[in-house]
Amino acid sequence: MDCVKEFKRDLAYHFSEVLDYPFARPKWVYISLSHKCTYACRMCGVVNILKGYELPGETVRGALDEIASWKWGSSVVLTGGEPFLRKDIFEIITHAVSAGVDTEAVSNGSLIDEDMAARIVSSGLKNIAVSLDGAVAGTHDYFRGSGAFTAALRALENLAAAKKKRGCGPQISVWSTIMKENIPELSRMPALAASAGAECFVLHPVIVAQDDMQNTGNTAQFWPGNKEIRVLREQIEILSTARGGCGITVFLHEPGLWTDYFSGNLDRRKWKCNPFVFINIGPDGEIRSCGESFGNIKDAGIAGSFFTKEAAAARKKMKRCQKPCLQTCWAHPDADSLSGLTRKLVRESSGMPERAALLRECLEELGEYRTVLNNKSGISIP
Q1: Handedness of CA 54, 59, 128, 76 (dihedral sign)
Q2: Strands of the chain, DSSP E
Q3: What is the model's pTM?
Q4: Which of the residues 46, 288, 348, 365 has an alpha carbon 20 to 30 A from that of 221?
C-alpha cells in the first residue's frame, strides 16, 4: 500500500511542475529558527543575514500545525544558526512530534553535552545531524573555529551514549560539506564518524550564495580547482566501497555528479530541481524555495504563499536555472518522468495482494490529471 501512496505523491510532484500548480506540498520544510550561532564559520554566510531576527515560538508552532494539517508526510528540519541556542527548542520539538510531524535538527555540536544529548535522544526527533568538515582538528577548526572538532566528536559520543542507555532514539548523522581544503580527507571521515557513534554519513557540496543558489559558481573561496577535482574522483571511488564507506555512507545521488558540479559540467539533463519539493522559512518568517521570498508565514500562512504571483515567478526562475546547485532537498528525480514512476510502481507492487485493484486506483489518479491537462480551468488540489 505504501508504494501506491508514494506513486500518488510522485504524480502530484510531476504534474505540479508540468502545470506550474501546487497540487503537491513540500517534502522538506527547513525552519531557520534563528541565525544566532556559537560559531562564525568561514563557508557560511547565515550569521551575516537577518541579524537579530528570531521566529517567535507561537509562530513556529502555528507553522508546524499547518504542516501537520496537510497530512502529506512532510519532514521538518530545524536549523539556524545553531537551533539548540533556543531556550524553547525542546518545546518546539515536542509540539512538532505531538502533531505527528517527522522532525530533524542540524547542529554544530557545540552545545550537546551529556544532559543535552539525553534530552535530544528522548525528544522524538527522527534524525539529529552534527556537522563535521574534516578528518583532523586542523581542517575542521579552520572552517569553524578552535575547539570545534573536539566539540563535534564529543557531541556524537554523548548522543551515542545516551541512545545506547535509552535503547532507542533518533538516527545520529554526520553532515559534511565538500570543500577544496577537506577533499583529501573525505575517505577518512566515515570511519571517524562511526567511531564516535554516528550511524549515517552524508556529503553535500559547498555553495556560494546561501540566499540564492542560482548564483553558485566556481569563484568561491572554497571551490576546488582541477587538481582537487581529480583527488575528489579518487575519494569517491574509495567511499563507494563497503570498506571505505564503513557501512554508514549514504549517497543521495550518483556521487560522480559532484565532479560534474565542481567542474561546471552539471546541467539540467543530469540534475534539476523541482520547485515544489522544498521550502525554507527564515527567522523573519519569509518563505523561499530558491532566490526571492514569495510570502511570509505571519501573513497567509505557508500554503497560501504557494499561490502568489511571487511564488510563480520564483518557480519560473528555478525552471530556467542553468547552474544546478546539487542540493538534494530541492530535487525529486522519482517524479521527473511518468514512465519512470510507473515502472517503479509496477516493480514495487509485484506480489502484493489485490494488486490489480491497487493499479486501477493509480490509473484513476493518473486519469484525473489527464482531465486537468485537457481543461486547465478545472484545476483543483486533490
Answers
A1: negative
A2: 28-32, 75-79, 102-107, 127-131, 171-178, 200-205, 278-281, 287-288
A3: 0.94
A4: 288
